[in-house]
Amino acid sequence: MKSLTFDRFITVGLIFGVIMSFWTFASFTVDDAFISWRYGKNLIDFGIWNYSPNILDMTQAYTNPIYALLSIIPNYFKIDVVLFFKIISLLNLFLFATYMIKITGKYKTILLFFILPATIIHIFSGLETFLFISLLVVLFINMYENNFKSSIFITILLFLTRPETWLFIALTPFYFLIKNVEIDFSNIKIFFQKLFIKDNFNFKEFLISISILGLALGSYFLLHKYHFGYALPNTFYIKSESSFHPMTFVWLVIASLPLLVIFFAKQYNLFLTFSLFFLALIYSYSTSTLQMNYAERFAFHIFAPLFFILIYLSTKIKEPACYVSNNEDGKTFFILKPNIIFNVIAIAFLILFFSRSTNIGKVADYYPRAIDSHAELGKKLYEIKSKYDVKSFSFGDAGMTAYHSELLALDNIGLGSSMVRQAKEVNEDILNQYNPEILVFHSRPQEIKIEDHNQKNILKWGLSRDYKYVCDVYWRDNYTLGIYSKNNYEELQQVCKSSEKLNNISSKDYILNMIKKSPFSYWHE
After folding, report:
1. Which of 48, 138, 167, 319 is deepest in the core (most CB within 10 A)?
2. Pairwise CA distance, residues 93 & 77, whole Å
3. Average pLDDT over residues 307-326
4. pTM
5. Which of 133, 140, 101, 139 is nearest to 118 (CA)?
């Protein structure tokens, strides 16, 4: 009876923790989400599938075509796009959590995962992060259970979720090719001998899977090549760089260590398949600019699916991982079961990941502040575009301001501009083609961050055409959006004044006021 009461107490405590994490962080929507959503909006409002509502600079700025396609629905039916994707996030959360609890019964450990602030942040960000993780876990489970058709279908869904998953065009067929090979790393000689036995390999499923997946991914590339002029997302070219980041590499390797559990569970075929995938991710992330790495998003791509894989394997591996006995009488002193080991490792890594999530405070008030700065600026640009015949503007935050403005938007960072990506800078020719009437800079109050994101070139271009400082839209007390133009735009000055009143306060004071409100109050554009 006492055990039952304690069990209920723990369960209630875990549920309370999830609710508190949800209350604090479910308001978060990242600016980059609006980049993908803008495609659905431009298709419905202007009949064009492009980042901007014309054909001047055809750009595939999204890396998650599944969310870009879904954004057609709220724009067609005039549903608030943020609310729509919050509901999608809730649906994803409910289906995945229900699925994992049903097949594992580990509801306490799974609830513990959803207490993690990073989990709630990534579920409700508006990006594909949690969908990517959910599908990876489901793919692993279907491979483990040798569900061939389901694995192919899930792999295709993953192709539409993140570019990293394109590796599975080879890895999924590779797994089904070797799934029947009895890999024994204790005897390397026998292992290599088996590699030359033709009957050990499943060539039929290999050929079928690689043909289907090749057709699916090839069609994706051809469509984008035809429409945008290049096959890969613009971000693929923008974010890559030659430098290697050792500390990022070390941290991501640590986040991937639960992979070893798959090895010790003797699931060697799956270990090889998923090790190749995660090692490729680690290399890619260690040699890229991870600009949107809020709440350790890219490490979360690695850690989170492995967490759930550990929980799943803890219910499938029954043999003792370790036992001690007396050889004389055969008496067993203790048995250490995988069920215990895997759960302890999962929880240990959960605590480790929590200790790394140091920037979650700024994430908590990110979107509420953005509503009164970035979104309000975009809505005001939409209001004045006809009155003043405004056709374009430039701004390095390519999401919600551009989304609401319905203007030609020059993304000076380059994610939303193939012109900038190809030129590797915002030059005079690009500025002349866009001819932005309004320039928006990343700033501190009345001080442009001149060396950031080609802003020096843009300011020089503007000043040569008599653009003058108008005002600062406040996102934080130390982070503003500096506006320059030939016209003073009284309407934009109103946004500056209102945003200063609402946002020119410290994060501590802002969050204390914010948490009094329901996160649902921020589920809108």
Report:
1. 138
2. 24
3. 73
4. 0.92
5. 133
